Each structure stands twice: as C-alpha cells, then as structure tokens.
C-alpha cells in the first residue's frame, strides 16, 4: 500500500470515527461528513490518473456535485434546527416529537 493510499484511507477512517464518537453538535457531524466526502473526492480524482482510465474522469465532478448538495442541505438543517430549538446540540433533536 502506497503512502498516498494510506493517507486517504486514514483520513476517511478518522472522519468516520469522529462522526461516530463526537456527536454533540450538528456542526461537528457536518464537518466530519465533509471531510469524508473530501477524502473520497481526492481518491476518485487520483484513481483514473493511476490507472490511465479516461472513462472515469467524470466521477470526481459528480462526487463534488453531490457533496455540494449535501453541504447545502446540512447547513439548511443546521439553521432550521438552531432557529427552532435554540442550539445545534444533537440531543435536543428528537424525531419522535416532530
């Protein structure tokens, strides 16, 4: 395994562990999701270059598009929950009360 692959795998693993264990604020969960998407974007950008496959060069652009949509939706949810509940703590959000 090359050091480049190790860094992508470790970045994805650390951000998923951060998402699993540090779930106090919605903004920290969104940051962990964005770091996961960033590591996946960089890995998908490097992969066609390593394999000399030109057919997969559109995949990073699609991933970046979905990442931007996910970030916009997450920030809209953050603003809406802060306005209704007064904070972005995840323990204040209960799906059974909606």
In short:
This protein is an all-alpha fold and 98 residues long.
Distance between the termini: 47 Å
Please report the total strand number as a whole number: 0
Mean pLDDT: 86
Pattern of helices and strands? HHH
Rounded Rg: 17 Å
Global shape: elongated
The appropriate CATH architecture is Orthogonal Bundle
Helix content: over 70%
Largest sheet: none
Number of domains: 1
Instruction: Give start-end ranges of low-pLDDT stretches.
Output: none
Structural class: mainly alpha
Question: How would you summarize the topology of this molecule?
Answer:
Blueprint: H1 3-21, H2 26-51, H3 59-85
Helix pairs in contact: 1-2, 2-3
Describe the structure.
With 98 residues, this protein is mainly alpha-helical. The protein has one domain (3-92): Helix Hairpins. The chain is 73% helix and 0% strand. The longest helix is centred in the C-terminal third of the chain and has 27 residues, at 59-85.
């Amino acid at each position: 395994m090359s050091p480049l692959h190790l860094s992508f795998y470790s970045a994805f693993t650390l951000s998923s562990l951060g998402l699993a264990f540090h779930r106090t604020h919605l903004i920290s969960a969104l940051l962990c999701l964005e770091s996961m998407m960033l590591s996946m974007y960089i890995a998908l950008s490097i992969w066609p270059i390593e394999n000399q496959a030109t057919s997969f060069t559109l995949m990073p652009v699609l991933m970046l598009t979905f990442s931007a949509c996910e970030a916009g939706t997450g920030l809209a949810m953050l603003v809406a929950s802060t306005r209704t509940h007064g904070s972005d703590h995840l323990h204040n959000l209960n799906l059974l009360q909606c």
